[in-house]
Amino acid sequence: MYPLGETPACVCGSSKMEMRCTGKSVMNTGRYYLKCPVNGKHLESFKWYDEYRGEVLRMPTALNSDKGE
Ligand SMILES: [Zn+2]
Fold first, then answer.
1. What GO molecular function terms would the record report (predicted)?
2. Using one digit for the tens of pLDDT, what is the confidence trace for 29-59?
3. 10, 18 in Cβ contact below 8 A?
């Protein structure tokens, strides 16, 4: 499973963001990131997972408690 269990909803409202892992690249080996589920090119359509989790840890009240799905 993913480290956090679930991903946040994309800001465009389409669905939850997809979590992917980078391939073996020079700069970011196996780093997780979140992307827009419909591949949108909008603000916040991409974010590094560790940075996202850092935001959640700093602002726990900002985490949507929606348990739907
Ligand atoms: Zn989106």
1. zinc ion binding
2. 788 899 999 999 999 999 999 898 887 777 6
3. no
Tokens standing for residue 45: 């359509």
Alpha-carbon span 36 to 57, nearest angstrom: 22
| Residue 34: exposure state from Cβ atoms within 10 A (0-12, 13-18, ≥19) | buried
pLDDT tens-digit series, residues 52-66? 888 777 765 555 555
Angle (CA) 6 7 13, round 5°: 135
User: Which of 50, 37, 49 is CA-nearest to residue 10?
Assistant: 37
Distance 43 CA to ligand 1 centre (A): 8
> How many angstroms does the Cα of residue 19 sit away from the middle of ligand 1?
13
